[in-house]
Design brief:
This protein is an all-alpha fold and 162 residues long. It has helices at 3-23, 26-42, 49-63, 65-71, 86-122, 135-161.
Protein backbone atom coordinates (compact mmCIF):
# COMPACT_ATOMS: atom_id res chain seq x y z
CA UNK A 1 0.00 0.00 0.00
CA UNK A 2 1.50 3.33 -1.01
CA UNK A 3 1.23 6.67 0.81
CA UNK A 4 -1.74 7.89 -1.25
CA UNK A 5 -3.70 4.75 -0.37
CA UNK A 6 -2.88 5.20 3.32
CA UNK A 7 -4.03 8.83 3.28
CA UNK A 8 -7.27 7.88 1.51
CA UNK A 9 -7.91 5.06 3.97
CA UNK A 10 -7.33 7.27 7.04
CA UNK A 11 -9.55 10.08 5.73
CA UNK A 12 -12.30 7.65 4.73
CA UNK A 13 -12.18 6.02 8.17
CA UNK A 14 -12.52 9.45 9.85
CA UNK A 15 -15.57 10.20 7.68
CA UNK A 16 -17.14 6.82 8.38
CA UNK A 17 -16.46 7.05 12.12
CA UNK A 18 -17.83 10.60 12.44
CA UNK A 19 -20.92 9.76 10.37
CA UNK A 20 -21.71 6.60 12.31
CA UNK A 21 -21.13 8.36 15.62
CA UNK A 22 -23.54 11.23 14.94
CA UNK A 23 -26.08 8.92 13.33
CA UNK A 24 -27.01 7.87 16.88
CA UNK A 25 -28.33 11.40 17.51
CA UNK A 26 -31.45 10.44 15.55
CA UNK A 27 -32.56 8.23 18.46
CA UNK A 28 -32.63 10.95 21.14
CA UNK A 29 -34.09 13.36 18.57
CA UNK A 30 -36.95 10.98 17.86
CA UNK A 31 -37.36 10.28 21.58
CA UNK A 32 -37.61 13.98 22.39
CA UNK A 33 -40.19 14.52 19.65
CA UNK A 34 -42.28 11.53 20.75
CA UNK A 35 -42.10 12.81 24.33
CA UNK A 36 -43.21 16.26 23.20
CA UNK A 37 -46.21 14.87 21.32
CA UNK A 38 -47.19 12.70 24.29
CA UNK A 39 -46.83 15.51 26.84
CA UNK A 40 -48.67 17.96 24.61
CA UNK A 41 -51.80 15.79 24.71
CA UNK A 42 -51.52 14.92 28.41
CA UNK A 43 -50.63 18.28 29.96
CA UNK A 44 -48.90 21.10 28.09
CA UNK A 45 -45.98 21.46 25.64
CA UNK A 46 -42.43 21.69 26.95
CA UNK A 47 -40.15 24.65 26.36
CA UNK A 48 -37.10 22.56 25.51
CA UNK A 49 -38.17 19.65 23.28
CA UNK A 50 -38.24 21.39 19.91
CA UNK A 51 -34.91 23.12 20.60
CA UNK A 52 -33.28 19.83 21.59
CA UNK A 53 -34.63 18.04 18.51
CA UNK A 54 -33.40 20.88 16.29
CA UNK A 55 -29.94 20.78 17.86
CA UNK A 56 -29.70 16.98 17.58
CA UNK A 57 -30.71 17.05 13.94
CA UNK A 58 -28.54 20.06 13.11
CA UNK A 59 -25.44 18.40 14.54
CA UNK A 60 -26.37 15.19 12.71
CA UNK A 61 -26.77 17.12 9.46
CA UNK A 62 -23.45 18.98 9.63
CA UNK A 63 -21.20 16.20 10.90
CA UNK A 64 -22.62 13.41 8.71
CA UNK A 65 -21.91 15.35 5.49
CA UNK A 66 -18.43 13.83 5.13
CA UNK A 67 -19.77 10.28 5.32
CA UNK A 68 -22.46 11.22 2.81
CA UNK A 69 -19.76 12.42 0.40
CA UNK A 70 -17.75 9.24 1.01
CA UNK A 71 -20.79 7.13 0.15
CA UNK A 72 -21.51 9.20 -2.98
CA UNK A 73 -24.99 10.15 -1.78
CA UNK A 74 -24.83 13.91 -2.36
CA UNK A 75 -27.01 15.27 -5.15
CA UNK A 76 -25.38 15.09 -8.55
CA UNK A 77 -26.65 15.53 -12.09
CA UNK A 78 -25.76 12.23 -13.71
CA UNK A 79 -27.56 12.37 -17.03
CA UNK A 80 -24.25 13.10 -18.86
CA UNK A 81 -21.81 11.80 -16.29
CA UNK A 82 -23.09 8.21 -16.32
CA UNK A 83 -22.56 7.91 -20.08
CA UNK A 84 -18.88 8.92 -19.92
CA UNK A 85 -15.97 6.51 -19.65
CA UNK A 86 -14.61 6.02 -16.09
CA UNK A 87 -11.41 7.87 -16.97
CA UNK A 88 -13.40 10.90 -18.20
CA UNK A 89 -15.52 10.79 -15.04
CA UNK A 90 -12.36 10.86 -12.92
CA UNK A 91 -10.97 13.87 -14.78
CA UNK A 92 -14.24 15.75 -14.48
CA UNK A 93 -14.29 14.92 -10.75
CA UNK A 94 -10.72 16.19 -10.28
CA UNK A 95 -11.47 19.45 -12.11
CA UNK A 96 -14.77 20.03 -10.28
CA UNK A 97 -13.33 19.20 -6.86
CA UNK A 98 -10.29 21.44 -7.34
CA UNK A 99 -11.98 24.43 -8.96
CA UNK A 100 -15.49 24.33 -7.44
CA UNK A 101 -15.59 22.19 -4.30
CA UNK A 102 -12.30 23.12 -2.60
CA UNK A 103 -12.60 26.92 -2.89
CA UNK A 104 -16.23 26.83 -1.77
CA UNK A 105 -15.63 24.55 1.22
CA UNK A 106 -12.46 26.40 2.30
CA UNK A 107 -14.43 29.68 2.26
CA UNK A 108 -17.30 28.00 4.10
CA UNK A 109 -15.02 26.63 6.86
CA UNK A 110 -13.27 29.98 7.23
CA UNK A 111 -16.51 31.98 7.51
CA UNK A 112 -18.27 29.44 9.71
CA UNK A 113 -15.25 29.38 12.05
CA UNK A 114 -15.72 33.13 12.58
CA UNK A 115 -19.46 32.59 13.02
CA UNK A 116 -18.89 29.97 15.75
CA UNK A 117 -16.07 31.94 17.41
CA UNK A 118 -18.27 35.02 17.68
CA UNK A 119 -21.01 32.88 19.22
CA UNK A 120 -18.53 31.58 21.82
CA UNK A 121 -17.30 35.12 22.58
CA UNK A 122 -20.86 36.32 23.16
CA UNK A 123 -21.93 33.15 24.98
CA UNK A 124 -24.86 33.33 22.58
CA UNK A 125 -28.19 31.72 23.39
CA UNK A 126 -30.87 30.57 20.97
CA UNK A 127 -33.69 33.06 20.54
CA UNK A 128 -36.37 30.78 21.91
CA UNK A 129 -38.31 30.67 25.16
CA UNK A 130 -35.95 28.12 26.71
CA UNK A 131 -32.78 30.02 25.57
CA UNK A 132 -30.22 27.18 25.52
CA UNK A 133 -26.60 27.97 24.64
CA UNK A 134 -26.11 28.29 20.89
CA UNK A 135 -22.31 28.24 20.76
CA UNK A 136 -22.03 24.45 21.23
CA UNK A 137 -24.52 23.92 18.46
CA UNK A 138 -22.87 26.44 16.12
CA UNK A 139 -19.49 24.76 16.60
CA UNK A 140 -20.77 21.77 14.63
CA UNK A 141 -20.91 23.91 11.48
CA UNK A 142 -17.15 24.54 11.00
CA UNK A 143 -16.38 21.04 12.30
CA UNK A 144 -18.69 19.53 9.70
CA UNK A 145 -17.19 21.75 7.02
CA UNK A 146 -13.67 20.68 7.99
CA UNK A 147 -14.67 17.01 7.84
CA UNK A 148 -16.29 17.60 4.45
CA UNK A 149 -13.11 19.35 3.23
CA UNK A 150 -11.03 16.41 4.42
CA UNK A 151 -13.28 13.93 2.62
CA UNK A 152 -13.12 16.11 -0.49
CA UNK A 153 -9.33 15.74 -0.44
CA UNK A 154 -9.79 11.97 -0.26
CA UNK A 155 -12.17 12.09 -3.23
CA UNK A 156 -9.63 14.13 -5.23
CA UNK A 157 -6.91 11.58 -4.45
CA UNK A 158 -9.22 8.72 -5.47
CA UNK A 159 -10.00 10.48 -8.76
CA UNK A 160 -6.32 11.17 -9.46
CA UNK A 161 -5.53 7.54 -8.69
CA UNK A 162 -8.25 6.44 -11.12
Amino acid sequence: MNNMDRIIKVIDQISIWSGKTVSWLIIPMAGVLVWEVFVRYVTRPTLWAVDMATMFYGIHYWIAGAMTLYMGKHIRTDFFYDKWAPRTQCWVDVICYIFLFLPGIVMFVWLSWDFAAESWDLREQLMTTWRPPAYWFKSAIPLGGALLLLQGISEILKSIKC
